[in-house]
């Protein structure tokens, strides 16, 4: 049996949404990532314990304002949303409320929403060994 799930990623530009998706799909970080323009979709199949499969359609949206109206059209069938912010940029966390509002206005009411603090690996900013 194949189950289809749509998940959307939102957050400010440069918070690492595309890197998260690429790392999940390829199972290793992609060091040659460029900024997303508008919206990109990646598909990844995951085998479950009972030999069923989940086909994840992961919609990675650009963080800049000019593409939001286009990206919103892809949210209406999403069963999950990931709001990503950069833990080293306070403004990206401050903008989480705006992203949450966008998700609540455009995704189904029962969509599961996760908040992800990203870029913990940035030791050059945080200091070696600090969480």
Automatic annotation (TrEMBL):
Keywords: Nucleotide-binding
Signal peptide start-end: none
GO molecular function: GTP binding; GTPase activity
CDD domains: Rab
Gene3D superfamilies given in the database record: P-loop containing nucleotide triphosphate hydrolases
Keyword Nucleotide-binding part of the UniProt annotation: yes
NCBIfam families, A to Z: small_GTP (TIGR00231)
This protein's name: Ras-related protein RABA1b-like
Organism, scientific name: Dermatophagoides pteronyssinus
Lineage: Eukaryota, Metazoa, Ecdysozoa, Arthropoda, Chelicerata
Primary gene name: LOC113788362
């Amino acid at each position: 049996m194949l189950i289809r799930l749509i998940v959307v990623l939102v957050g400010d530009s440069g918070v690492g949404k595309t890197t998260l998706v690429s790392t999940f799909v390829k199972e290793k970080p992609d060091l040659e990532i460029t900024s997303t323009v508008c919206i990109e979709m990646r598909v990844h199949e995951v085998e479950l314990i009972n030999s069923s499969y989940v086909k994840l359609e992961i919609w990675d949206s650009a963080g800049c304002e000019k593409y939001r109206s286009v990206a919103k059209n892809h949210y209406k069938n999403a069963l999950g949303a990931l709001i990503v912010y950069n833990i080293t940029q306070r403004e990206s966390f401050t903008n989480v409320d705006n992203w949450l509002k966008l998700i609540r206005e455009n995704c189904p009411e029962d969509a599961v929403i996760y908040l992800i603090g990203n870029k913990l690996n940035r030791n050059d900013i945080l200091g070696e060994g600090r969480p």
